[in-house]
Amino acid sequence: MRGDLQPRRGPHVYPSEGSDTADGTGGTGPGSGPDGGPQAGSRAVTVVLGEAGATRTLRTGDDPLTLTVTVLNTTGGDAEDATDNLSVAAEGGTLSGGDVNVSLLAEDGSWRPIGHTARLTTATLPAGESRTHRVRISLPEGFPASVTRLRVTAFSNAGEETIT
Question: For bias kind Gly residues, which ranges apply (predicted)?
């Protein structure tokens, strides 16, 4: 785990960009079989979202899971230099670089690779206002077999965070 929380740049490429279904669970893609079902040899990993604990299923080698991180300023005043962070961690295990692909939707509409622990932004968030971040997570074919659950969490010093 990196302690600096700076965005990581890397060679992560998502060949299925733009193919997510409206519910963010992904469509058919490189990890999908001919009938749109799971590809032989892929395996399911449970993804737990934030404090609410809602779950999604992500398959190795399949299309990315798209999530929305929302931060609401509940501090009662403007949150100067509010920092929004994201963490994707293995429950009961550890992740190394390249074990999971995480990307952030940039202002120009492109997906920018970030680390599994990363800073999403640092900017002022006015009192009572919110901001959102779109994040994609995918698992390569070589994802560690010992990991069956991932937990995605967000933290901001501006107040309340939700992940959907």
Answer: 24-39
Q: Mark out the alpha helices in 5-161 (DSSP H runs).
A: none
What distance in Å separates the CA atoms of residue 134 and residue 159, rounded to the nearest whole number? 18
Burial tier of 116 (Cβ tally within 10 Å: 0-12, 13-18, 19+): buried
Model-level pTM?
0.74
Three-state DSSP state, 68:
strand
pLDDT along the chain (164 residues), means of 10: 35 33 39 47 92 94 97 97 97 90 97 97 97 98 94 96 96
Strands 111-114 and 101-105: antiparallel
